[in-house]
Specification:
Elements (H helix, E strand, L loop, with lengths): L46 E2 L2 H13 L1 H12 L10 E6 L5 E4 L2 E17 L2 E12 L2
Antiparallel strand pairs: 1-3, 2-4, 3-4, 4-5
Helix pairs in contact: 1-2
Amino acid sequence: TTDWGRTNVRVADRNPNVAADLQWPGRKDVGHTFRHVDGTATAGKSTYADENTAINVTMQLLNSQDGQTKLATLQNQNLALYDNNTLRITANVTGPWQGKSGSGGPCRRIRQARCEIMKLGDLLWVHSTYPTQFHN
């Protein structure tokens, strides 16, 4: 996760097992997933308190029953690059993870979140992730 904040990852430091056009060069922008992090979101988006929260909650979503079912669906797909649709995962969240609703207000503990995933070639792509419900 240390590469997420880097703006330029040297070619020598990129994963050589990934096709050159899909290697992570560093972010030029925060990307859609991180548009749901407090401080980067446009008005009306629900947000995670920080990038660490976004990553940890997304890992919970992928490991949930719904997540594992959707990942198995992706695994069985044999699609050409970009010839695919996103799959939506929704699951309850455990732990102290905080976020804000799209209407703003203070951070609250996240009850439920959602992510949208797709397959790009043989790679998993988390298109978006965001909190959907909060504890009172």
